[in-house]
Amino acid sequence: MELRQLKYLVCIVEAGSLSRASQALHVAQPALSQQINRLEEELGVKLLVRSVRGVTPTEVGQAVYQQAKSVLKQIETTHLIAAQADAGPAGPVTVGLPWTMATLLGLPLLREVRANLKSIRLEIIEGPSSMLAQLLAQGKLDVAIAFDNTTTGGLLMKPLVSEPLQLVGPEGSLDGKTRCTMAQVARLPLLLLSRPNGIREEIERICAAEGLKADVVAEINAPNLLIAAVRAGLGYTILPSCAMDEHVSATALDVAEIEGGRLSRTVYLSRSRLLPMSPAAERVYGLLEELIFGSIEKGRWRANWLGRPAPAEAGP
Questions:
Q1: Domains in the chain and their CATH numbers?
Q2: What is the pLDDT of residues 268-287, one digit of tens each?
């Protein structure tokens, strides 16, 4: 098996056709077909299905494609580490951040890496926690923030903090109230994220336990639109504090704590259980943990510590 065969396979699968892969690789189509045929013969399986609509991987081909991507990425990382060994951790690191955490952690992470880890090429992918967990399990991410609804056997998930979820409404809509009950929340017109989503599932779990039925008037999966809809008076939503600090200070919104302390979520720092981490990824993993706890210590994030003692209270 040759590395170029793995490279050709990855390019063909992602291009969806031999002709497009040929153009991208600057390799003639017959040569591509020949190398893929040799790879299939060596593995003893069919990797690709050719049709008038293009090329698609078989089930086995998809698995080999994923492994090939992982191998090629590790080789790229090895070259970078060797070339920049004297400069400290080096190479590409891909981090997944849920949109509720992106504002809180994304910019500080970029600044820290740019200032002190110049040999690391950082890529940040934003998306739903469930999607990020799947990408991490597939080896497409090195590190991700995930929540308790995304646990999977392929991940090592380290619980860091637990944070309360809070009611968010248009300015003046809560009449100055800073606390409310879940029964009061359930009667409001709610704009919620659709399933699969940990916040949505937690709301439904608590409502079911209390015999309540939430009045969900719309499902909005676009974060900026969700906030804009609440601000425009179209309904209320429930979000964690880390997603709201910037919006509350910059836009017309009211926020209230939901009494009982039962509506919360756990934040996990996650990595693959099966794939090894590069030194650069290990460094970013540790940096993310420090940034999370630093945000709590500095009062930027209202959350409860897990697995580490809370910061000491300041003296009088």
A1: 3-81 (1.10.10.10), 87-160+266-305 (3.40.190.10), 164-265 (3.40.190.10)
A2: 999 988 788 888 899 999 99
